[in-house]
Every structure is written in C-alpha cells, then in structure tokens.
Amino acid sequence: MTDPQNPSAVPPSAPQNPPAYSSAPPPAYNSPPAPGAPVPGKTLGIVAFVLSIVLSWLALIPLILGIVALVQSRKAGRGNGWAVAAIVISALSIIVTLIIVFALVIPSLSAASTCVANPDAIVNVWGVQVPCSEVVTTTP
Fold first, then answer.
1. Number of CB atoms found within 10 A of residue 45's CB
2. pTM
3. Is 28 part of any domain?
4. DSSP code at position 3
C-alpha cells in the first residue's frame, strides 16, 4: 500500500533492528531486609523465651517454638537472639530435669521395688537406712 500524499515513498516494512527490551532483573532471594522491617519469627522467639522460663518443667514446648522461630528468622536473613536464648534455656532445663530424675526418682523406685520384693529388708534411701516396714504400709 502506498501513501496517497507521497506516492513515491517506499512502504514501511518491518524494522531492520527490532527494539531491544531489557530483561526483568532476577528476583532477589535472601536479599537483606529493609531497615526497620519486622523480623520474621521475632514474636515467636519472645514467646518461646517467656515459656522457657515459665514452663521450665515442661521445656520441650519452648524448645520447639524457639527452633521454629530461629528457622523463620534465618530464612529471612536475620538473627533472633530471643529464639537462641529460648533454645539454650530450654535445653538446660531439660538437662537439669533429667539429672533430677536420675538422682532422685530412680533411687527411690529402686528402694521401693526392693521393699515390695522383701518386706523385711532394710534399704538405703538417700543415705539413710530405712526398714521396709516403715516404707511400705499394708492395709489390714
């Protein structure tokens, strides 16, 4: 098709050099967060810290919460001191609880099992010699 105003003009054809489009930048994975942005897992870390102190007898729950909070923060490229503190306190609470169980409960159970087997025996309970007749009471 020719231009009616300029019949000698060559009809435009496809451009010789197609326009160059810049490609989109790749998504920024693990880029540093903006200053002042909330830290993922920080609230969960604080909750785990408080529970690790309050629930020292049941330290498995704050230990799990602290680990989850730390993983969330690490995925976002941030640190989470609250979560680390909760993990440490919970782990120490578990260790202390296990020491108490092995030091106090197991010897008591051992003495009780001895008295059940032989009611006339004398057992050593935390360094004190106790006759089984005083430990095990029988009903008439």
1. 27
2. 0.55
3. no
4. -
